[in-house]
Every structure is written in C-alpha cells, then in structure tokens.
C-alpha cells in the first residue's frame, strides 16, 4: 500500500524567452465587420484575423478576434493588446 509519494524536479529550461523568434503577423488582420447578438441586443463589431495581429497592436471592443481554433469577443469598453510573446492580453 502506497500512502504518500512526493517527487521534486530541479533543472533549467533549454531555451530562454530571448531565444524565441520575433512574432510576425502572417496576413492582414482586419476583416469586414458583422453584427453580434449580445444580452443588450445587436451590436456592430469589428472583426480581426488573429494571425494578422502583431505585437503591440491594440483592439478595442466591440470586436471579434477569429482564430482557427478559437474566437474572442470583446464587449464595448474592453480591449486586447498583443504581447511581445504573441499572447493576447485582454482587459475588461
């Protein structure tokens, strides 16, 4: 009978953030807008292709950010900024 098992791993990463390549947009980011149905009724929203957004770009809601495997909706007053790492930082 095993009651408790504890393990610890100590090491260093093989690469540092500075070793990663710069994030470059793959294509044009802005697409035709669309109407989005929200709990407050229909809203006209800008639409962006996530692969086309580069570091430092800021998107203000209402907006839709489309990816191949996800969609991000920004409501009115919300914003998203593309971090230098390529991550999308969203503020409500």
Q: Topology as H/E string?
A: EEEEEEE
Distance between the termini: 50 Å
Helix content, binned percent: under 10%
Number of helix segments?
0
Mean residue pLDDT: 88
Shape: extended
Measured by DSSP, the beta-strand proportion falls in 35-45%
Stretches with pLDDT under 50, minimum 5 residues? none
Structural class: mainly beta
**Strand line-up across the major sheet:** 1-2-4-5
| Strand elements, count | 7
Q: Major sheet: size, sense and barrel closure?
A: 4 strands, mixed
Radius of gyration: 19 Å
Describe the structure.
The termini are far apart. The protein has no helices and seven strands. With 92 residues, it is mainly β. It has strands at 30-38, 41-49, 58-60, 63-66, 71-74, 79-82, 88-91. It has a four-stranded mixed beta sheet with strand order 1-2-4-5, with no helix packed on it. The mean pLDDT is 88.
Could you give a quick summary of the protein structure above?
Helices cover 0% and strands 40% of the residues.
Strand-helix topology:
Layout: E1 30-38, E2 41-49, E3 58-60, E4 63-66, E5 71-74, E6 79-82, E7 88-91
Parallel strand pairs: 2-4
Antiparallel strand pairs: 1-2, 3-6, 4-5, 6-7
For the structure shown, list the relevant keywords.
92 residues, mainly beta, three-stranded antiparallel β-sheet, extended
């Amino acid at each position: 009978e095993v009651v408790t098992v504890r393990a610890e791993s100590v090491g260093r990463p093989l690469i540092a953030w500075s070793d990663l390549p710069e994030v470059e947009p793959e294509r044009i980011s802005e697409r035709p807008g669309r109407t989005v149905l929200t709990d407050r009724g229909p809203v006209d929203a800008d639409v962006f292709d996530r692969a086309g957004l580069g570091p430092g770009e800021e998107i203000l809601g209402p907006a839709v950010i489309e990816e191949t495997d996800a969609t991000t909706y920004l409501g009115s007053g919300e914003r998203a900024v593309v971090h230098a790492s390529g991550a999308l930082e969203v503020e409500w």
